[in-house]
Amino acid sequence: MHYRTVLREGSAVIVAELAVEVEKQLPGVIETTVEQIRAEMPVYHDAQFVTLAELRTSVRNNLEYVMRTLRGTEEPDLAQARATGRARALQGAPLPELLRAYRIGLTEVWSRFVELTASDDHQDLRGLVAATSAIWALIDDYAEALTTTYRDTTAELLLAHQSRRSALIEALFAGGTATEGTLWDIARVLELSLDGTYVVVAAETPRVGHEPLPQIENRLRDRHHASAWRLTPDLQVGVVSMRDPSASQVIIELLRENQTGRIGVSPVFTGLGNTSRALHLARVALSSMMPGTKGMVQFNESPLAGLVASAPEASVQLAHHVLRPILDLPGDDRNVLLLTLRAWFECQGSTKLTSERMFCHPNTIRHRLKRISEELGRSLTDPSDIAELGAALRALHMFPDTSHLPAPRDPLR
Q1: Could you tell me how far CA 95 lies from the centroid of its own chain?
Q2: What is the architecture of the domain spanning 310-398?
Q3: Fold of 186-301
Q4: pLDDT tens digits for 97-148?
Q5: Which among 16, 19, 42, 390 is least surrounded, fewest beta carbons within 10 Å?
């Protein structure tokens, strides 16, 4: 103990003798300390964390321990300081104010020692020095024990809060029965409005355990947008409050900073209870981009891509069903026809623009388009055929690894 290291045997005797005299004044010391703490510290005056009775009890317990220690009747025991530190941490009292209250109490004890050693009966400079050293050593010991316990308790509370927060975020994104009866609690803990306006973001992780959007919650908070996030092995997902019309631009800018991979964003939605559905749409938007690429797509920017991505198996089956005659052609023929058809769609059906993009004569494009129509048995002027071809091309683009496989078995046959 620091306290023991500053007291030699002779000094301890002097301090003990003085402590016996000062202890007779202890009721007055306690009341003076309580009054001074309340006068100088609004958090105690307004009873924000402890009542007046609780404050008086705490001051009495701690000062009685101090006097017993100074009298030498007990080995220094910082259990009371630790108990106070833990109690105040649980109550949320600020640590600086807590330490200040301790200094006020021990300074009041020291002032009584000063008065006693300066009186006509004592005039004891040596006793004053010994008492001063002992009291300030106790202040150091108290502050260290109290601070350590306070911080340990705060860390425990933070860990418990984070664990509960993570569980509530998981329930929010899971949806269904996971949120029944707990949605209000989720909103309160996450500081989100039940009927607010939101978007959900799904960002692809570069590798397991690494955030693609580091510090995104803090960065959004700095711009006055509340959000809640969780990290999974493959995604970092978050629900972000849209507090005002400018929020969309702020969120987009933050997402694009240091972007490392694919990011999907849900449509704007209202009501926290719809978060799980929005997460599905954000994942669909992410899946509409080719793996290995970098970019950001909001679901409503490409409804067809979203529809294809939301049903991979059905979309692949559609692609094979519609495009199988071309997929079965030899490699060069297949690639040329697929590239031509894709370019024709991207050029909005313009033969001229398609020929410019593919660096060939418009008649060559017309010939290829005629062959595509014949191979597939579909018209490039019939809206229903064009719709099916567009969806099939989108599916083939999104799931290219399946183009060489046999056509999926039709479950109805």
Answers
A1: 24
A2: Orthogonal Bundle (1.10)
A3: Alpha-Beta Plaits (3.30.70)
A4: 888 888 888 888 888 888 887 765 555 677 777 777 777 787 788 888 888 9
A5: 42
